[in-house]
């Protein structure tokens, strides 16, 4: 089955800098790649996704890049703010009813 | 208002007791999920439900069962709870087959003593 790996378990950046979280996946059939954010003590909520028919998507300060050849995708957060501090989960789905999550990256934005 | 609710939010049980966790959604989503989250282990999928009475095991179904009699409700049952089932449990729902965003409930923190 699919296996999603998040390469950074923790990431610390200065406020205003960019943060990059990298993920890889194994199943070439995966076609949908969402990202979720979990603030301390709270639930997960969706932040952005990308589908395999594009290689870049941007929503305000969030940019997702997809490299299908390398089976790699990444979340870029530009101009980071303290409220960006959270755990970020990447995920992959092959439209076969399952979504596979990475183990999460703890992002700390220092003032 | 698109929402997933979970009840109860906090629960303390003794080993061997039965546990019922309830989840509801108001979006008429066909697919619903139960996950557990333990520190450092990310999300582990327990069960998936594709619609009423159409459920499938996830990665860690042992010790759990589910019930879905109405599209908007999905229950997780622990018969004779064990201490290693202490965890935070999340319910989620999505339209279609997982290629759309999942909406997560607020979670239930279960402690089994």
Structure commentary:
The complex is a heterodimer of chains A (111) and B (113). Chain A has no helices and eleven strands. The termini of chain A are far apart. Chain A is mainly β and 111 residues long. Chain A has strands spanning 4-6, 10-14, 19-25, 32-38, 44-51, 56-59, 62-67, 72-77, 86-93, 99-101, 105-110. In chain A, strands 2, 4, 5, 9, 10 and 11 form a six-stranded mixed β-sheet that branches. Chain A has a five-stranded antiparallel β-sheet with strand order 1-3-8-7-6, with no helix packed on it. The radius of gyration of chain A is 13 Å and the shape is globular. By secondary structure, chain B is mainly β. Chain B is 0% helix and 55% strand. Chain B is built from no helices and eleven strands. In chain B, the strands form two sheets. In chain B, strands 2, 4, 5, 6, 9, 10 and 11 form a seven-stranded mixed β-sheet that branches. The termini of chain B are far apart. The A-B interface holds A 31-32, 34, 36, 42-46, 49, 51, 89, 93, 95-99, 101-104 and B 31, 40-43, 45, 48, 50, 56, 90, 92, 97-107.
Overall geometric form of chain A: globular
Characterize the main sheet of chain B. Answer: 7 strands, mixed
What is the subunit organization of this protein?
heterodimer
Number of helical elements of chain A:
0
**Strand percent estimate of chain A:** over 45%
Number of helices of chain B: 0
**What is the count of β-strands of chain A?**
11
Mean pLDDT of chain B: 94
Residue fraction in strands of chain B: over 45%
Helix share, percent of chain A: under 10%
The topology string of helices and strands of chain A comes to EEEEEEEEEEE
Low-pLDDT residue spans of chain A: none
Distance between the termini of chain A: 41 Å
Largest sheet of chain A: 6 strands, mixed
- Summarize model confidence as the mean pLDDT of chain A: 95
What is the C-alpha radius of gyration of chain A, as a whole number of Å?
A: 13 Å
The residue fraction in helices of chain B comes out at under 10%
List low-confidence stretches of chain B.
none
Q: Structural class, from secondary structure content of chain B?
A: mainly beta
Protein chain pair with the most extensive contact, residues per chain: A-B, 22 and 22 residues
